[in-house]
Structure formats: structure tokens, C-alpha cells
Amino acid sequence: MTAQYVSSGEFTRDQRYIATRITADGRDGYPVEPGRYRLIVSRACPWASRAVVVRRLLGLEHVLSMGIAGPTHDSRSWTFDLDPGHRDPVLGIERLQEAYFARYPDYERGITVPAMVDTRTGQVVTNDYAQITLDLSTEWREYHRPGAPDLYPEELRAEIDDVNRVVFADVNNGVYRSGFAGSQEAYEKAYRRLFTRLDWLSDRLESQRYLVGDTITEADVRLFTTLVRFDPVYHGHFKCNRQKLTEMPVLWAYARDLFQTPGFGDTVDFDHIKRHYYVVHRDINPTGIVPAGPDLSGWLTPHGREALGGRPFGNGSPPGPPSPEETVPATA
């Protein structure tokens, strides 16, 4: 079964997510507990990739396991085709939808990643991607690694929230509003809105190293996962082609700065990213042919943004290397 992604006019994202939260006090019935929950992601998905980055930056690998779905799926669900027997080794399921149906047998919305699953019951707890990363920063604080950064500092939360709001509307979701537009008018409206915001971000980042304050925050994580997909996918596949990221000097340097920061680039799987978009979106790319390019070598070139100051991890320190089982395979 092949899903249809292009809308009849302007693309509108369904933002009705499972709002249950995993909290330190367990007020929703799901207290933070080491080893109890499993974070299910796909490295192809920008929304899931936020959780992958945050989990790694905060050093939560030892208390929150991670299952990685394959890069492609059908209209039913993400699948665990990367694992032996095509089953998640902890949950024992072939499709993520099994965890959704275990809690909601009549669940009719999208089976999305990231998803937090209770390993005791096999039931999904939440797929509210925006709240998941904020809760990893705040509710899971007891289990952060020594030297973990504060990605959502209390004194900057209002500004971070403001930046996140416009970046989501115009950039994170804006590329989809361009790519899934079903009319010329809807596409051009989304296209203009996207590049107006990218110009705004370029102006903001020209004189400051990070989006809010002088350290990495949640705002940088959310922008990064879109920027890293821009040239491999959004520029061509989604027709966001006024410029490539590599042709926007400030944003290209900013993205390289983050990519070269431990916890960011070492979570990126360009192969999965390209295979997901070009294979799954058959109504945009009917042949399913995956482009051979672009050249990725530029991601490791000097960015020069140290000159702007800033301290990536504040008073903390970078995470160590990823574990062998979570290391992204080298891209040829």
C-alpha cells in the first residue's frame, strides 16, 4: 500500500498527538524510570532525529534504550526491518503500529516516530515529539550525564519557545508545505514563506553563534534536523530550490558547526534520509529512484564560527562517542 502525501491544495499537518507525558512525578501514570521505556525512532525522520540528538547530548543512553526503524514504510506503519527477524529485539514487534494498537485498538491517526513505548506493557505512551525532547531535558534531569548541557534553560525558555514557534511554522513544517502542496498557489506561498524565514535566520545568526544565548539549546536542535536534510532532499524533492543550503553562507556555516559538534553529525544517516523521502513519497517521485548526490564532503570543512564566541556545552562537556550498536554506518 502506498500512502498519498500531496494535498488537494495547501498542506496541513495533523498535529493531534498522544499527549501523555513521562514525568519525574509520574502525574500521567508514567514516572521516569531507568530501563522502563524504549524510544522508537527512524534516522530518516527529522522529528525523530531531534530526540536522537537530545538523548545523546544529555547522555540518557544508559537509562532509555532506542529502537531504530528502517528508513522506508508503507501506509500502515514503520517497520523494524533493520533488526534480526525484522522484529524489535526489546519489544518483539514487527511494526510500530502494534505498540499503538496495544494501547488504542481503534487508533486512526498516523503511526509516527518518535514514539515512547512502555516496555512493561508494550503500549505506546506518547508520540508528542515536541514535548518528548523538552521532557528529556527537564523531567529526566536526574539521569543526565555529568557535563550534560542545559538545552532548555529556564531563563531563556520564553525566547526559545518564540523562536521554535516561527521556525516550526515556516521552516520545519514549511518545507513540507512546499513539497506536499497540491496547487501552484499553495506551493509558491509556502516557498516564499520558507525563504523569508531562512533569510531572517541568516540575519539572526550572522552575529551570534547559536539561535538563543551563547550555548546550544533546543532551538538549535530543531533547526539543525531540517537544515541537514535541505540539500539531499528538500531542495530538489520538495522544490525548495531558490538556493541550496551550501549557497546560503551563514546557514551553511552554522549547520556545519553543529554537524561537527558531538551529538549532532554523528547521529545523521544520509542514506536513510534519502531512501525515505525518495522511496516513500511515490506521488512525488513515482520511480522511487534515489539520487546519487549531493557531495557530502563539505560537511566536515572548517566553518569559522568559533570567532563568534559561544560555548557549545556551556560549563559542561561534549558527549563521548556513540556506542558501536548506535554508530551510523559510514556513507560511501
UniProtKB/TrEMBL annotation:
Gene3D superfamilies: 1.20.1050.10, Glutaredoxin. PANTHER family: GLUTATHIONE S-TRANSFERASE OMEGA-LIKE 1-RELATED, GLUTATHIONYL-HYDROQUINONE REDUCTASE. Residues 300-332 are annotated as: Disordered. PROSITE patterns: GST_CTER. The lineage of its organism: Bacteria, Bacillati, Actinomycetota, Actinomycetes, Micromonosporales. This is Glutathione S-transferase. InterPro entries: Glutathione-S-Trfase_C-like, Glutathione-S-Trfase_C_sf, Glutathione_S-Trfase, Glutathione_S-Trfase_N, GST_Omega-like_C, GST_Omega/GSH, Thioredoxin-like_sf. Residues 153-280 form the GST C-terminal domain. It comes from Phytohabitans aurantiacus.
